[in-house]
Amino acid sequence: MDNGSLVKLRERMLAAVNKGNKIQHTIKVDFSEIDPKFVGSFVVHKPSQMERLEIGKIISVLKGGEESGVDTRTHNIATIIGTFEVVLDAKPDWFDVFDPELEYEIMEYVYNQYTDFIGNFRNRARGSEPTGDSANPTSEV
Questions:
Q1: Considering the entire predicted model, what is its pTM?
Q2: Which end of the chain is more exposed for a tag (fewer CB within 10 A), N or C?
C-alpha cells in the first residue's frame, strides 16, 4: 500500500470517527482513598478494525518492537497506554501516564472496565458467556 492510499485510508477512518458513529461507554472512578483528586469519568469507544490495527502498532513501538523478552508489567503498560491512545475520548485532567503519582493499578482498573465493555460485544457475537481459558493462566491484561 503506497503513502497516498494510507493517507486516504486514515482520512476515511477519521471521517467515520468525526461522524459520531462510535459506540461509547462512560467509566466512573473514585480513587479518593489514594488521592482526593483521583475522581472522575472516562469516555471510551468501541474501536474499529483500523483502530485495532493502530493500537497494535502503538503497542509495538512502546515495547521497542519486542514480541517477547519484556516482562508482564511492561507488556501490560504498553497495552493499556496503546489502547487508551486510540479509544479514550475523554478523561479527567489528572489522568496522565507521565505523572509518577498515577499508580499502575488505577490504569489497570480503567482498562479492565474498558475490556468488560468490549467483552459485551464479543459475548453477543459468540452467543455465550465467557468461559475463561484454563490453558493460558497468565495475568496479562
A1: 0.72
A2: N
Range of the structural domain that residue 30 is part of: 3-126
Tell me how crowded residue 71 is: count the other CB atoms within 10 A of its CB: 8
The residue among 46, 11, 10 whose CA lies nearest residue 122 is: 46
Cell numbers that stand for 12 in this block: 476515511
> Can you tell me whether residue 36 is helix, strand or coil?
coil
Position 120 scores a pLDDT of 86
Query: Which among 109, 139, 116 has a CA at the least distance from the CA of 34?
Result: 109
pLDDT per position as a tens digit, 67-114: 667 889 999 999 999 999 999 999 999 999 989 989 999 999 999 999
Q: Is residue 51 included in any domain, yes or no?
A: yes
**pLDDT value at 54 more than 80:** yes
In angstroms, the Cα distances linking 116 to 13, 27, 39, 52, 80 are: 24, 11, 20, 16, 14
* C-alpha cell recorded at residue 63: 515495547
Strands of the 39-45 sheet, one edge to the other: 24-30, 39-45, 88-90
Q: Which three cell numbers stand for residue 87?
A: 479509544
Q: 118 lies in a domain?
A: yes
